[in-house]
Specification:
about 600 residues; seven-stranded mixed sheet; about 30% strand; elongated
């Protein structure tokens, strides 16, 4: 029996259920199920064939989801003689036909669910295959144990269905197998009953929630315990274990800590790290994980690890560490599809084989089907991993609204050039003489130029007046003409203060060129305050001495500290002082050159 160095953590919140699998104290697998967004793989539906595509040898099936499911010809099971099995999708299915299908792959992105008509219902020790025959046994089990379980399955004499014995069945008795089969037979009878009384599309069978599913699939004697932070989940899990594996029921424990369970074991921090591109290795190397539509690329780098002897030894050690971490990240992030691993080049064939062997050995810990294709002539390891769900990244993240998933946006310089071209065209077609334009502060700075030189050039050539309002809340690749009109109206709209105003401001930083002065901002509009360089972080009343298009100038007003509190309040109420709230947007005026 393997050392019991593994444990399962189950955390239930009102809208989210998390199940974490820890090995040697490190998070290796994480499952997140959110209210209204449960995984669909394993669900059985009564579907209606919408259309058959001879050119693709596939069919689209309506199962009641937003997008129709996709059914390949190879996934259509025919119960007749296999030798006489039709080869064309049009010979098997027709539009409008009602069929039973099971989801084998969740909908992802723009693609609907992948379907099969070869149905199966998983139990604790067995998988029940309606319409199948014979018995298969998990290859992860030792040969002697596989032979024993195969013999037990023959003794069960199941008719009208096939059986697949799971890894969790190691060491179980014939009675335990029989109980599992009886339970699965009842489940299938229930599905058949629902099929007769429903009209397509309809859900006939739903997979268990993630906590029971994970425990059903992997919990065995190698696990130290299951730790649960919810009484409801604890009762449910313990009841399930008592029915299926009574000897393991005592290993289900209720978490009693004061801090949240996932925080105590570092799971939440690990989840955040699993969303990053970079993953550090123990010796100082690191991985870079990049996702594309077609495949996932993992690049291995030595980083700050320089080794102690030969370069080849340094590279081999980094690559060996990378093998272990790559497999952990595949499991943790649930990365599927085509995967390319760019290990650091090694000169010796023996070392390359050692790295491949290490990768293969580590993949034995992964329950998801994987296949190492080859080491390509360019030194890249090509492999595939079964893709069933969106994975951690798909569940916890969404496409960036700024870059739309591209990962890059136009630079401030490029955007400034583009806006300038558009403003010149606007100036040619509009009868208005002035415009207020909202842009990102960095773009505004480039459009204004040093000392307002660029803005002066644009205005002289177009014979129009422009005022740029810099807003942090607007993306770099966006701009908006928020007002058009006379020069005077735009001037009034663009300046947040006037000469003679007294406003309370926070001194944000010393002046870049004269540290004796301080800088404050109103909606991003810069106010230079004489002698305030030592008052950074303080709120002060400031008198505005002069105002220009680019900034205003002022000085701190001395406040009478000896006033009583009521007198100070009355004084504040009677003055023209305005307490300006901080905002995220940044308004930039320009120097008035009238």
């Amino acid at each position: 029996m393997a050392s019991r160095s593994k444990q399962i953590l189950v955390s239930a919140e009102p809208n989210e259920l998390k199940v974490a699998v820890l090995e040697q104290g490190r998070l290796c697998e994480i499952y997140v199920e959110r209210k209204g967004r449960r995984p669909l793989a394993g669900n059985i539906y009564k579907g209606k064939v919408e259309n058959v595509l001879p050119g693709m040898e596939a069919a689209f099936v309506d199962i009641g989801l937003e997008k129709n499911g996709f059914l390949y010809v190879e996934e259509v099971m025919v119960h007749e003689d296999p030798d006489k099995r039709p080869k064309k999708i049009t010979q098997m299915l027709r539009s409008g036909q009602e069929i039973l299908v099971q989801i084998v792959k969740d909908p992802m992105g723009t693609k609907g669910a992948r379907l099969t008509t070869s149905l199966s219902i998983p139990g604790r020790f067995m998988v029940y295959v309606p319409g199948g025959d014979g018995a298969g046994v998990s290859r992860r089990l030792p040969d002697e144990e596989r032979q024993r379980l195969r013999q037990l399955c023959k003794e069960l004499k199941i008719k009208g269905a096939g059986l697949i014995v799971r890894t969790a069945a190691e060491g179980v008795t014939k009675k335990e197998l029989l109980n599992d089969v009886k339970f699965l037979e009842k489940m299938w009878q229930t599905v058949q009953g629902r099929d007769k009384g429903s009209k397509a599309p309809a859900l006939l069978y739903s997979e268990a929630e993630v906590s029971l599913k994970v425990i059903r699939d992997i919990f065995n004697d190698t696990f130290e315990r299951i730790l649960v932070d919810s009484q409801k989940e604890y009762d449910k899990i313990r009841s399930f274990i008592k029915k299926t594996s009574p000897k393991l029921a005592e290993r289900v424990e209720m978490y009693q800590g004061s801090k949240p369970l996932m925080e105590t074991y570092g799971v939440d921090a690990e989840i955040k790290q699993a969303l990053l591109r970079r993953v550090d290795l123990p010796s100082g190397g690191y991985l870079i994980i990049e996702f594309t539509e077609a495949l996932t690329i993992i690049d291995v780098n030595t980083g700050r690890y320089v080794g102690r002897t030969r370069l080849e030894d340094t590279i081999v050690k980094t690559n060996i560490e990378a093998c272990k971490e790559v497999v952990r990240q595949l499991r943790l992030r649930d990365i599927g599809g085509i995967i390319i691993i760019d290990f650091i080049d090694m000169a010796r064939p023996r070392n390359r084989q050692q790295v491949l062997d290490t990768l293969g050995k580590e993949l034995e810990t992964d329950r998801t089907k994987t296949y190492i294709v080859e080491l390509s002539p360019l030194g890249l390891v090509e492999m595939t991993r079964q893709n069933v769900t969106d994975g951690l990244r798909g569940i916890l993240t969404k496409t960036c609204p700024t870059c739309n998933g591209e990962g890059v946006i136009l630079s401030e310089e490029s955007m400034a050039f583009d806006i300038e071209r558009r403003l010149r065209r606007l100036a040619e077609t509009s009868s208005n003489e002035a415009f207020l334009v909202e842009v990102h502060p960095k773009v505004a700075a480039m459009l204004i130029g040093q000392g307002g030189a660029k803005l002066k050039e644009i205005e002289e050539e177009t014979k129009k007046y422009f005022s740029f309002e810099g807003l942090d809340t607007i993306s770099i690749d966006t701009f908006n003409v928020s007002a058009e009109g006379s020069r005077e109206a735009i001037q009034r709209a663009s300046l947040p203060v006037a000469e003679g105003d007294e406003v309370r401001l926070r001194i944000e930083e010393p002046h870049m060129y004269n540290t004796n002065d301080g800088i404050a901002r109103i909606d991003g509009y810069v106010i230079s305050i004489s002698g305030a360089g030592k008052l950074v972080g303080q709120d002060k009343k400031v008198h505005i001495d002069s105002v220009s298009r680019t900034c205003a100038y002022g000085k701190v007003v001395e406040e009478i500290a000896s006033q009583t509190e009521p007198e100070a309040a009355a004084s504040a109420a009677g003055s023209e002082d305005v307490d300006v709230p901080k905002r995220q947007d940044w308004r930039i005026g320009r120097e008035d050159r009238d």
